[in-house]
User: What shape does this take?
Amino acid sequence: IIVHRNNSDFQRAINDYFPKEKTITLQDCSNYLEVCKNRDLGVMDYFVGLHYEVESKRLLNEPFENKNYGWQDIGIQSTIPLTEPDNLNFEDIELTYMQPKEDDPF
Assistant: This one.
């Protein structure tokens, strides 16, 4: 297994080893794992694209992948208390409207 960072050197060198159709798909990820030879399964020259997340220092399958592990602290949701009374009577409220001006176009 070889790990490649997707930088300018990698982008220049990849054109020498793969056809143009393959290199277009190799520009989306930030890192690549190359399986040169897998003796168990017989896989050769297989690329896996991964996205590096700076905050967690992990390699992810997708750029916005969100996994929560058991050792992570997950915030507890709480309710916000309502400060208005529950028994509002809308009939007692006097509605005021803006009066149109004479130079308004509508």
Notes: Helices lie at 8-17, 20-25. The longest strand covers residues 44-53. Residues 80 and 89 are 23 Å apart (CA to CA).
